[in-house]
Amino acid sequence: MAIIHGYRELIVWQKGMDLVTEIYILTDKFPKEEMYGLTSQMRRAAVSIVSNIAEGRMRGHIKEYKHFLLNSYGSGAELETQVEISKRLHKALHLNYSVVDSKLLEVMKMLNSMINKLTS
């Protein structure tokens, strides 16, 4: 098994970056009046997921890493909620959320697993 030295090598960070891209693609289709509302919040939450993974990994201490992974997980829950709000508010737009939903679920499962491993 290879030793991971930086955050860019973490699969969860890579998948999280894919999620950020998909969130930007999705929110580009939102009404323009959402630019400073839900669009901005969803983008910030997605960016926060990967940012916390990166920062925690580079801190160098397990306790701090776990803390930042928990922050990342919290941002994921925030994004899940915002995606649900978006689905309810933008039903008429008939947007496809399947890619965002699957990538977000995958990242959340990976974060949960990492947090659990650091806890035990």
TrEMBL record:
<protein>
    <recommendedName>
        <fullName>Four helix bundle protein</fullName>
    </recommendedName>
</protein>
<dbReference type="InterPro" id="IPR012657">
    <property type="entry name" value="23S_rRNA-intervening_sequence"/>
</dbReference>
<dbReference type="InterPro" id="IPR036583">
    <property type="entry name" value="23S_rRNA_IVS_sf"/>
</dbReference>
<dbReference type="Pfam" id="PF05635">
    <property type="entry name" value="23S_rRNA_IVP"/>
</dbReference>
